[in-house]
Amino acid sequence: MKHKRLRKFNTKDTYPEQNLNNDLCHAVITEGGKTVWMRGQCPQNLDDGTNIKSNDPGEQTHKVMQNIKQLIEEAGGSMNHLVKIVVYITDINNREAIYKVIGEYTKGVFPVSTGLVVNRLARPEWLVEIDATAVIPS
After folding, report:
1. 42 vs 57: CA distance, rounded Å
2. For the packed helices 57-74 and 95-106, what is the interaxial angle rounded to 10 degrees?
């Protein structure tokens, strides 16, 4: 079964003051399949845990989203199976750069999303962490 996405919207309509273009929805309905619960992904390599050498929020987000994509694919799915993300950022001024990159990976997917601004993450050099959940249909 294909996931049913309720009340799809695009951030260019809901946040017109920001230069964003992310496909999101308010709820996702899934039936059966396997759920992939991912730990918060940070800008580091999955294989050895080394941080990428960048303080750019966009580059850090690319690495985070690449990790999420890789984990979903290793579980036998695709980004179309992504149902929820929770985005943690340490500086509200980086929001647009971070969400632009997320939008590149979620175009046409419409996951539900929650965004939080936090004082810090587990390592001071991390600007973004994303917790993601995917459901791969049977």
Report:
1. 11
2. 30
Looking at residue 22, its amino acid is N
In whole angstroms, give the CA distance from residue 79 to residue 68.
8
CA-wise closest residue to 2 among 35, 24, 28? 28
DSSP the chain: -PPEEES-EEHHHH-TTS----EE-SEEE--SSEEEE-PPB-SB-TTT-PBPS---HHHHHHHHHHHHHHHHHHTT--GGGEEEEEEEES-GGGHHHHHHHHHHHHTTT--EEEEEE-S--SSTT--EEEEEEEEE--
CA within 13 Å, CB half, 91: 12
Give pTM, 2 decimals. 0.91
For the stretch 8-45, pLDDT in tens is 999 988 888 888 899 999 999 998 899 999 999 999 99
pLDDT tens, position by position, 113-131: 999 999 999 999 999 999 9
